[in-house]
Amino acid sequence: MILKQIAEYLEDGAASKVKELVQQGLDDGIDPKTILEEGLLKGMEIIGKLFKENEIFVPEVMIAARAMNAGMSILEPVLVEIGNVSLGKVVIGTVKGDLHDIGKNIVGMMMKGAGLEVIDLGVDVSVEKFVDEAEKVGANIICMSALLTTTMLNMEVLVKELENRGIRDQYIVMVGGAPVTDDFAKKIGANIYTPDAATAAEVAKEALIA
Ligand code: B1M
User: Domain containing 124: what range?
Assistant: First the structure.
């Protein structure tokens, strides 16, 4: 019952209620992983589906994301402690010269919702910073977002940088953003292009499980 309520409050974007019920669930002795999967992730799954089908739009997703983050702020330390936290690590950012972050934030949030550990490097992220941080945290996936036709070219520079450092095979490179296409991704040697945040999270999860 409480798990269903958490999912419903998350869909409604009621951040303080989500936080309160997650804490109550822990106090009642419910397994934190169950709270994550049957509560928070159930809610985010529905949000992702509605967003993909154009039933809801960016503001609703951002509000639900805030509720997800509120719940995760209680759950994450407990999950980390019991070593149950993630399927894999993702570094994500908007490429150098580009300040658009709404889409990138949604992708990151959906990936968190899918059970991945997401390290958000922010906007205007240089190729060196992407690669250095990925190496530092032991990431599995490097995710780049670009909204400008000029800045998307930096995605190719990153693939080349990985090749130059002899570490190309260690990473799955994912790209996206309004001007990015599947053809472009193939041309620059990225592993995965996805057109939207919900698909990005689904595909990243599949790639890590495979
Ligand atoms: Co800018 N802007 N903007 N802008 N802006 C665009 C992108 C533009 C298309 C508008 C236009 O002219 N029609 C145009 C780009 C033209 C081009 O390159 N061909 C443009 C321009 C020109 C500029 C400036 C140069 C304007 C100026 O100053 N003269 C300037 C550049 C600043 C810079 O970055 N250096 C600029 C500035 C801004 C604002 C700061 C005002 C603001 C950004 C605020 C912010 O992000 N915090 C802004 C906005 C809001 C837009 C539009 C209107 C909306 C972008 C957005 O947030 N969409 C945009 C027009 C448009 O796209 N229709 C535009 C909603 C968001 C949810 O979608 O980011 O596409 P999106 O993300 C989607 C998918 O693409 C995908 O998932 C998301 C959700 O499903 N996705 C991924 C994104 N990243 C992914 C990564 C993945 C997978 C999927 O894997 C890693």
Answer: 89-209
Domain boundary among 20, 51, 82: 82
C-alpha 90/C-alpha 49 separation (Å) is: 22
Supply the residue whose CA is at minimum distance from atom 39 of ligand 1: 100
Structure tokens, 42: 């159930």
Phi then psi dihedrals of residue 125, to 5 deg: -90, 125
With contact defined as beta carbons under 8 Å apart, do 123 and 100 qualify? Answer: yes
Nearest atom of ligand 1 to the alpha carbon of 198:
80
Is residue 66 domain-shared with residue 93, that is, in the same domain?
no
Beta carbons of 87 and 209 less than 8 angstroms apart? yes
Of 82, 115, 149, the residue that ends a domain is 82
Same domain flag for 27 and 101: no
Residue nearest ligand 1's atom 50 by CA:
100
Task: Quickly tell me which residue has 């949000």 as its tokens.
Answer: 47
Quote the ligand 1 centre to 145 CA distance (angstroms): 10
pTM of the shown model: 0.84
Contact 172, 192 (CB under 8 A): yes
Report the CATH number that the domain containing residue 97 is assigned in CATH: 3.40.50.280
pLDDT tens digit sequence for 110-158? 888 788 999 999 999 999 999 999 999 999 999 999 999 999 999 999 9
In whole angstroms, what separates CA 160 from the centre of its chain? 24
**Tell me, what amino acid is at 131?**
V
